[in-house]
Amino acid sequence: MSDKKSRKQEQLERFTADDRDKEMTTNHGTKLSEDEFSLKAGERGPTLMEDFHFREKITHFDHERIPERAVHARGYSAHGEFELYESLEQYTTADFLTDTSKKTPTFTRFSTVAGSKGSAELARDVRGFATKFYTEEGNFDLVGNNIPVFFIQDAIKFPDLVHALKPEPHNGIPQAASAHDTFWDFIANNQESAHMILWAMSPRSIPRSFRMMEGFGVNTFRLVNKEGKGHLVKFHWKPKLGVHSLVWDEAQKVNGKNPDFHRADLYEAIENGDFVEFELGLQIIDEGDEHSFDFDVLDPTKVWPEEEVPVKRVGKLTLNRNVDNVFAENEQVAFHPGHVVPGIDFSNDPLLQGRLFSYTDTQLTRLGGPNFHEIPINRPVCPFHNNQRDGMHRMTINRGQSSYHNNSLADNHPRTVPPEEGGFEHYQEKVEGEKVRARSESFKDHFSQAIMFWNSMSEHEKGHIKDAISFELGKCQQTAVREQVVDMLSNISGDLASYVADNLGLAAPQNQAENITKTSPALSMANTVQSPETRKIAVLLAEGFNGEEVQGVLDGIDKAGADAEIFSTKLGKIKADNGYTVEADHTFLTGDSVLFDAVYVVGGPDLSESYKMKAKYFTKEAYMHFKPVGATHDGKDWLEEAGMSGQPGVITSDDLESFGEDFIKAVAAHRFFDRELV
Ligand code: HDE
């Protein structure tokens, strides 16, 4: 059996394993002899009230849905494990960050922010990247995003931001998209969003895959060591496969062709044994250096440039197991930045401080009460005891008479634990001040880092941002909103503001951006890892194709760790000129160019004109999305005719060996943005 087939068979057995040999009963254990017909007074008569089976089944069904998350409703998850490279005891007492012999189980949920639970996955949006570490000292949740800064500085503005971002209340339009008036009106009138909006309009907000994006804790946390000394820290995730994105035209089409594109990608990679790896990185600042930067280290609209504060890679997360049940795990998982373990503490970052309230609070509505920590996916792996009791959905049957502290009846148990024995002790930071509702002076510079980000972008990224903003504002109805945004952009870059203004038919803006030349090369995706691993290559061929050559190229693709999927005139076995046979995975009905990373065009004798037209369209679309295109035989002629030959990333060598190598190199490079669009 082929690898693919045996995996499918194995999946099928796994999926049905739980129900095998089981008898059907009611929820109360009464065996059922029949499950298709309700109990009626006569075959054509009314259903009877006494039908307890019908009532139970329908009642349960009527209550199957829970409220979706207020934000990050659309998400997908996987289990994994975290391994530490070297002890960080110099900085923290957390056991999963000091004991290199431990493998800490994890659960990671990726998400979009704005769309509802059923929305398409390639919306232009920030992605959530939340990981629960089930450590032996309790759960630590790193609840981050794929963008390292945020729109606002103070949590009290979060409801305003989200109201502006969500579909407009009077008509519920648009779904899962920021291209509308209220969102951009918010941006223009809350200029602390300047830095974040550039990230959000960059290619980062349409990732190629959850497996190919960075993750950031965003907020500043604190690590605390044995001596009680604190260091400020920012958390990062660095993907093994590098940071890669789609282009906008492609993303919009993917949403139609496969609205589950990202979840399917993650699920299939794990099923195929291509486990997903991210390195955990830390940026650490000595508290003595807290004030030595040209930004406030507590301001969540600022990055700590990696060139100034290097990212230390301290361990590896491997996602290696798919969820068994999407509701039980992906829907019911409850993350919270306040789930910390001894050795990890908070900073006074005002966004973080507000988040510490919100995440437990929201679960009360979403998961129906205060006992959501007892749901299997949320339970710590270490024992947990306290005097909290009862409430909706309580599962634990607590024994004993006392449920209060202090007590003498249970000899004062459960007892509190001194810090020396692992009890959590809050970091003893000295704080004093007037009670004020105010923004710190040090939080008032909204543009320096936006300019640094802009300066650090490659030409392609700059072009992407310009077009993204032009698209989004083009969808806004109010000229005043467009004008205000253009005005705001002119504080970042005259070039950016004029380009957008011109596209929108507005007058060029008057403001002059500050002359800041600082760059941070780490911010650009152009400097990322390139790898052909798990890339999906569409191979277009038909009966009678050149067997020797295709076999050679397919072997090369396989060796490089990429994945070829065959398109042909029909599904099933397709024979080459030398008897070699491949199994077609798709026709042009079931697959589409936008769902692939690259195309290898082979063709075959006796193809109909209509098939050739479709193959050329498929290839041209890949070309227009800057994807690698390889061709031999008929394919070469098709590329020639369409004017694609000779362009960067278009590989048409006659020498089989060099063709294979060059094509794989092109696949690793992902996209060729310096290509002429013909
Ligand atoms: Fe969240 N956020 N958030 N957020 N957030 C939620 O909690 C909130 C913020 C993030 O896959 C909610 O369980 C406030 C920043 C992720 O289940 C809610 C503020 C970052 C997820 C909430 C922020 C995040 C959430 C909704 C402003 C990146 C999904 C459902 C201070 C560091 C987790 C829920 C998952 C979810 C509140 C801002 C990341 C309402 C008040 C900044 C990845 O509690």
TrEMBL record:
There is a cross-link at residues 336-359 (3'-histidyl-3-tyrosine (His-Tyr)). SUPFAM superfamilies: Class I glutamine amidotransferase-like (SSF52317), Heme-dependent catalase-like (SSF56634). GO terms for biological process: hydrogen peroxide catabolic process; response to oxidative stress. The keyword Glycosyltransferase does not apply. Residues 1-34 are annotated as: Disordered. Heme binds at residues 69, 109, 158, 355, 359, 366. It is an enzyme of class 1 (oxidoreductase). The keyword Transmembrane helix does not apply. It catalyses: 2 H2O2 = O2 + 2 H2O. Its cofactor is heme. PANTHER family: CATALASE, CATALASE-B. This is Catalase.
